[in-house]
Amino acid sequence: MKHCMRASGTTNNWKPIKKRIQPHLRPRMRIKYTIPIVFFLALVVIEKENNIISRVSGKLTLKQSTQIPLHPIGPFHTLLKQNGSSKTFKKKDFMLMKRRLENYGEHQEVMSSQRKHILLLATTRTGSSFVGEFFNQYGDNMFYLFEPLWHVEKMLTLETGGTNATVAAKAYRDVLQHLFLCDFSLLENFINPVPVDHITAALFRRESSSSLCEKSVCSPFVKGVFERYHCKTRRCGPLNLTMASDSCLQKAHRVIKSVRVRQLETLRPLAEDPRLNVKFIQLVRDPRAVLASRMVAFAAKYKNWKQWTMDGDVPIDDDEVRKLKGNCENIRLSAETGLRQPSWLRSRYMLVRYEDIARFPMRKAMEMYKFIKMPLTPKVKSWILKNTQASKEASGVYSTQKNSSEQVEKWRFNLPFKIAQVVQNVCGSTLKLFGYKSVSSEEMLMDKTISLIEDKVFKFL
Description:
Radius of gyration: 32 Å
Structural class: alpha/beta
Distance between the termini: 90 Å
Shape: globular
Number of helices: 21
Low-confidence stretches: 1-21, 48-89, 104-110, 391-395
Helix content: 40-55%
Mean pLDDT: 80
């Protein structure tokens, strides 16, 4: 009643009452304003941590490829749930999370900088299988895949025998990205028949990848199941792609060899993917030598060319000639892009001629490993010494055992001069870029004393 009576008086009568109740309200006011302030500060700290996460997350692999539990650095609401409420989310929790974040981020950055992702780009009959062995023979720390895009090309091939270049380019890029992250799920969509429970007996050239024939990837042999490209080193059952993925994740480095990518430019998203540390090695060879080799390896597809060598002139407007020109243009444009060194390719691109590798295999192998900043292992050196001095009996069409120095000039005595002229006419700019000399006569083509390979250094950062 006293309070009421005083309150009904003048305005000045409020002052004594206000002074008397202020100490009484002070603790409640502190609580009222302290909680929002603490919560606001918590959000500020979390925001700083999120900035760290955003910088780190770009270098993290996909969920299915990392398989690393992230609960130590879980989101804010997860930590609140673990601690019961925001009141118990104390400063020590923030500090603990910060330390874990920093340690995890540093670990991921180190792993990302140390892990190599190498893509060996080439076209068919350029010696890519031979050069691919420089990486396949590295040892236990290298996961090597031989032509996984074969399945993609086969699935996308049209009835006309070609592929839609735009669709194929995107499919190739996406599959490569998944495989570099050890994720085989996208590739499974292109394997025919479709793998059952991630198990397939149809993976192209499985035996050409030592990683897919290791004991850890060798599933129990299944009687009656035929695997065309079965492992030669041990008796394994059909390939379990889950086991292959696990093996891939355990390796420090990953290499893929492919002859199906047409334009280097289409792979730009791989170079810009912060989860990857991609290096591109483009392998090229004299287009005349490539054609001569294809006419032997794929005789049925080159019947027209063989007929032209006997009948006379080659029709310049023929589909086969246009295809040859298109192949040369793609190779040249890719090389020009790489040698120009745009920002997205800086320190990521290397051009190598097969002829240089064939003549100086050890030296070029050392240059390639220097480019990817890795040591050339004794196992690779031993393989090179053994497989560059093979006998004629061992040097089959698909063999990686070659007397490499002989392979450089062999095509000159198998390719008719008139066919060599056609290649020079449609691939002239490509020959010039890579340092291959044109011949003006059959005598010059057959003259062993005249080298058709210029000494040329391709500069790259």
